[in-house]
Amino acid sequence: DYMVLQQAGKDQQKSTINGISKYTSDQVTLKLSTMSDKNTILQTKTATVTNDVWQIILDPVATSNTAYYIVAQSKVNASDMVSLSNVLFGDVFVCGGQSNMQFTVDQVFNASEALEEANNYPNI
After folding, report:
1. Which residues contact 86 (CB under 8 A, 6 or more apart)?
2. What is the pLDDT of residue 64?
3. Is the full-model pTM beyond 0.90?
4. How many Å apart are CA 23 and CA 53, to the nearest integer?
5. How confident is the model at residue 121, as a pLDDT?
6. 3 Cβ partners below 8 Å, 6+ apart?
7. 38 bridge partner residues
8. Interatomic CA distance for residues 49 and 77, integer angstroms
9. Which residues contact residue 17 at a Cβ distance below 8 angstroms, ignoring those fewer than 6 apart?
10. Residue whose C-alpha is closest to residue 15's, from 96, 94, 88
11. 63-98 residue pLDDT tens
């Protein structure tokens, strides 16, 4: 729950979702809908379990403020399912560094302008 998957972007990138199944040769069906209307399915994808693992590649989804709902369900046992709520599509950045590497916004050149401009991006 509460995650960001890679948005489509200009080069139509796709998001990949992986999972495991305890059933050999199972089929897993994944459905994508919005949180506000879980009954309207936007995408349906199916994958076959190979060596206990399945992988589904979603069609490109544009960035937006829309929260999505994803359900993956086993064909062998319909009660075996997992759901992900409040999934957004956007740009994903991974940053790393040492614990002594700190740089706060107030240290930025023109910090007051940067803080003022932040109001234009309420979802960050």
Report:
1. 1, 2, 3, 35, 67, 68, 69
2. 84
3. no
4. 10
5. 81
6. 84, 86, 87, 88
7. none
8. 13
9. 5, 30, 55, 56, 57, 58, 70, 72
10. 88
11. 888 999 999 999 999 889 999 999 999 887 777 777
Q: Is the Cβ–Cβ distance between 31 and 17 less than 8 Å?
A: no
How far is it, in rounded angstroms, from Cα 111 to Cα 102? 15
pLDDT of residue 92: 79
Query: In the prediction, which pLDDT does 39 show?
Result: 93
What pLDDT is stored for residue 119 in this prediction? 87
What phi and psi, each to the nearest 5 degrees, are found at residue 105?
-60, -35
- For the chain, the average pLDDT equals 89
CA atoms of 124 and 118, how far apart (whole Å):
8
Closest CA to 67 of 45, 54, 56, 83: 83
The amino acid at residue 38 is: K
Identify the three-state secondary structure at position 82: strand
Stretches in the chain below the pLDDT threshold 50:
none
- What's the rounded Cα separation, in Å, for the pair 34 and 19? 21
Please provide residue 19's backbone torsions phi and psi, each rounded to the nearest 5 degrees.
Answer: -160, 175
